[in-house]
Amino acid sequence: MKADRNQAVKHKGVSYAKWGYIFLIPFFVTYLIFSFVPLISTFYNSFFENYMSGLKHIGPNFVGFENFKTIFNGDLLKYISNTIIIWLMGFIPQIIFSLLLAVWFTDLRLRLKATGFFKTIIYMPNLIMAAAFSMLFYALFSDRGPINNILMNIGFLKEEFRFMTSVWATRGLISGMNFLMWFGNTTIILMSGIMGIDTSLFESAAIDGANSLKIFTKITIPTIRPILIFVFITSMIGGIQMFDIPQILTNGKGTPNRSTMTLIMFLNNHLFSKNYGLAGALSVILFVVTSILSIAVFATMTKGITKKKGGK
Question: Which stretches are transmembrane (predicted)?
């Protein structure tokens, strides 16, 4: 009897596993067609000379690592620094503001009303297209736009300030738009992590005399550390892939003086000029850099967690 039952359970387990693999087939087929094959194709094309010269098509001719040398001998480091600076200018205030809002919204002692309404409001900018956001900011901060008019009317400025010709003003506008678009999404993610913490931990800490700052630093932050790792890595990848906002705001030129030219804008220039070899080489570099940074960030931020588990 017992043997028959074990055999039935085993048969059912094999059946479940089979259906699990069947349901995974669409994902793997989609990944194979739209991700894996293009990835291999990009690596392949990065070793070939393949571009348009007027109406004449040159290549594809195998050139080895010449495309990579050309990329590194150019202004790649400048575009990397631009991307990092703009990302950090948006991410640092974003994570601080999102953490504060997440803690505020999830604090049961405050008994806040209409939290659902405020959550919806802060998330709404994430639903707006980046192109619309860029055009809005371009109109607001243009030389004769509303912002300049307001600042001049209140006496803060004597003459129009040309935001689009100032390096840090343009970078500030781009990072500000990224902040406005994504802080709501980050707040919701952090809230989900904080709401998963056992409330008895907060109550015990409060009874022991811990103040709000100590509870935040000793309980909240360590507990939601995996969520913070996820937010940091996804934001970093998003920062490396920054394109639409600076592309539209600066008309694809990275003005002033290419100080807002990001890596993907640089890649898009090669695609626009149909220099597929250099575009492939730059794509491979971006892939490698993103992978290394993601692994390094993950290893660094999970180091303490791994040690604690090992100690147990």
Answer: 21-44, 84-105, 117-141, 179-202, 223-243, 276-299
Which of 125, 78, 31 is CA-nearest to residue 260? 78
Contact 264, 279 (CB under 8 A): no
Identify the bridge partners of residue 49 per DSSP, sorted by sequence position. 61
What domains, with CATH codes, occur in the chain?
A: 74-311 (1.10.3720.10)
Q: Over the stretch 167-199, which tens digit does the pLDDT of each residue have?
A: 999 999 999 999 999 999 999 999 999 998 888
Question: Is residue 133 pLDDT above 60, yes or no?
Answer: yes
Residue 269 near residue 283 (C-beta atoms within 8 A):
no
> What's the predicted TM-score (pTM) here?
0.84
Contact of 259 with 110, CB cutoff 8 Å: no
Say whether pLDDT at 270 is over 90: no
- At residue 202, what is the residue type? F
Residues 6+ apart with CB under 8 A from 239: 83, 84, 86, 87, 88, 90, 91
